Structure formats: structure tokens, C-alpha cells
Amino acid sequence: MPAEFPFLADRPAMRFAATGATSRPLRLVAPDGIEAALDDLPPAQAAFVRAQGFKAGAGELALLPGDDGVSGALLGLGTPERRARLRFALARAAGDLPEGAWHLAGEIDPQLAEETALGWLLAGYRFARYAEAAPPKARLVCPEGLDRVRLEAIAEGEAFTRDLINTPASDMGPDELEGAARLLAERHGAQVSVIAGEELLAHNFPMIHAVGRASPRAPRLIELNWGGDGPALTLVGKGVCFDTGGLNLKPGASMGLMKKDMGGAATVLGLAHMVMATGARLRLRVLIPAVENSVSGASFRPGDILTSRKGLSVEVNNTDAEGRLVLADALALADEARPDLMICMATLTGAARVALGPDLPPFYTDDTGVAAALAEASEAVADPLWRMPFWAPYESKIEPGIADLDNAPSGGMAGSITAALFLRRFVTETPRFAHFDIYGWQPAAAPARPKGGVGQGARAILAALPKVLG
Description:
This protein is an alpha/beta fold. Helix content is 34%, strand content 20%.
């Protein structure tokens, strides 16, 4: 890994201002509360706000003049309906306010205060490895009653995920992904072990080897372990560092974003940081099958039949459906230990984007308690998720007859569901299993989410863990 890349480096813009810092007030104002807010201001300031045409729209700012420049500001809440349409709308203030420390003034709903505070931290993210990108200079004082350490750990884990996804494949292959995992382990006192290249065959990971063998960058299985007490949580993340499609070569337009095909791995590493940094009482295991799906004389072929670690045979009907192959071997290994909860995260199917768009990743689980906890947490922490079914009648679609399983059923329908069903075949001993079919990319800039790599589902999972694992 290039030494100059600051994975997990301190980012002042993504931390709260020092406690006790001299700060200016930022008062949140609803559209129906404008007049009351203005009545509390000196006449000159109220007149200045009126002159700005302040309507208290979601994220709208009105600066308040003072003897030394700006003495404070009003921040529009907008209507609840508008805020529901624009997550982290209030985080716009982070980039628009003058330099210095600010604090949220007045009584604020705790959930809104937390969303605003976290959004502010996330808005400080910049990917600046290849070009200068100045972060916001306004800093927020952590609102009273909020867990500063936890919020900063979440923001740092999200920044880690974004950095990994945003880094092009020239600088983020399987070796560099391993380096990132080792850096994370060093930070938290975790252990990392790696099985790479031909050793994958010796240790019975044939499908990870098959997908990655065409690349000069050796495929590998990365394992991180942390914690010696509490319930067992296993995170499995798809680490396809670049996906050409293999011999079923993608067209150029479809290949352009394939640096993000390791978004599942990036997300579980970011989530692992959040878990470890907050000191969760559990035994954490992270498994990442890291490969590059390349084209060469060694490429696996359409029509090949691979035998998985689980012993199930798989007919390859499309080499561009490789993510489920590498995940299958990793899931089979994870299942052998029967963890209390297993989470799989992958940028797996375009079908999920067609169904739900880029913002709303589907998740699959047979456990109603896990599903309920995730749905509740998703809403509470503004990290959208939507439960989709392991629809049993579609099982026949992944059974080709010539082998146990088909990696790419024909017909094009229910692609996200059939991929999830395929993965479930490799988890037979672990009752509580959830699979997330994420996108890992923000197509256009939005509050707290610049265009580029983005974590999805990690914050909801973190919030749900106490309820799921006790």
C-alpha cells in the first residue's frame, strides 16, 4: 500500500470542535416558527434576516450580523415531508457557514440533533489523494447528551469505506485491500491472516482461486479477528477490486465504475472499525475474498463447472456473475463456525438498482427478529434499507440440472433474489444470516454525501447489534 495514502488518518473536519471552544449559536427554525425566532432577535438582525428572504427551508441559512462580523445564524428545518425527501439536509450548513466553531442553540429533538451532528461530520469528508479538495472550515460542538466518541467513530469508519471505494483499481488491488485490513487491525489490536494464490487451492477455496487466477495480482482470502468475549459476529464482504466481467467482457460504459465492486469489503471494514472503536462486547470476524476478475488465458470460462468449498457444484453461465462465487467459499468457511450472526455485504446485482435505485439497498434474512431490528435501526439512524424475500419458488431458477447450482440464471428476472438464494445455499448451519445487496456509490452530490464511494447499511447494522446480539 502506498505510504502516502492516509487510510484512517485524522481528519479535523470530521471531528467535533473541542469541548469548551468559543462558538457561535446556530438556531434551528421551522417554517412556522420564523416569526417567533425573529421576535427573539434584535430589530437590526431581524430586519437583516427578512431582507435575505429566509423561508426556513430544509438546510437554508440566514447569517446574523454582529459587531465583529457574523454573530450567529438561523438554520431552516423545512417541513417534515421535505426532510424525509432529503436525508441530512441540515448538513448543508457545514459547508456554507463561516470558519469557526458553532453550536446548536435551543431545545432540539435528540434524534434530530444526532442526525444533524453526524451529517455535519460526514459533510467534512473529502477524497484528496489525487487532487486538492478543501474541507469545510466550520466545526460543530457536539450537542449535549450525544455520544461524541461513537459519532466520531461512525464518521471515521464511513470515511475509511469511502476512501477504499474511491481509490482506483491501479492503487487498490487485492494486495492493497489486504494492506488496508492490516492497518485497521494494527489500529485496534486485531489479528489478520491471509491465504493467497495457489495456497487457496490447498486450503479448499477453489472458487476464489478460479475467479482471481487470470490476474497477475494474486487472489486471496483476508481474515481479521478481534475480541475474545461476547457473541460471535461474522462480516463477509465482496472484495472484487476490479471487474472486467471476465470472458463475458463488460462493455466500456459498464466497466467505468468497477473500482467500486469491492464496496462490500470496504463497507464491512468500515463497520468493523465502528464496532472496534466503540468497544462493542463481541467476537468479531471479518472475511474478505479479494480478487481481480481479469481476462487472460487463465480465465475461468462460461460453461465451466466449479466445485465449491461446500462441495456444491456450480455451472458458470456468466463469468460476470463472479461475486457470488467468491462469496460462496467465504460464506461456507464462516458457516462452519456457526456464529451468532452472519452479515454478507456485496455490490452484487444491477437488478437491485433497477428495483430500488441507488439509495435503497435491499437486505435478505429469514430471521424476523433480525429483520425487525434492522428496519427499526435503519429509520432511527437515517441509513435506508428495505427487506426483500428469500422467495422459495425461485429456487428452481438457480438449479441448472447439469450441476447443483447456476451462477447466472437466464431470463433476467428477479436477479437480486436469485443471487441471494444462491448465497443462502452456502449458509446452512448459521440460523441468523442477512445478505445486503448494496450499490456503494453516490451518483450525485447530496448533503453529507459527496459524489463517489459511500457506505450503505453499516450504521443501521451497528445500531441493530445490541438488540440482535444482546
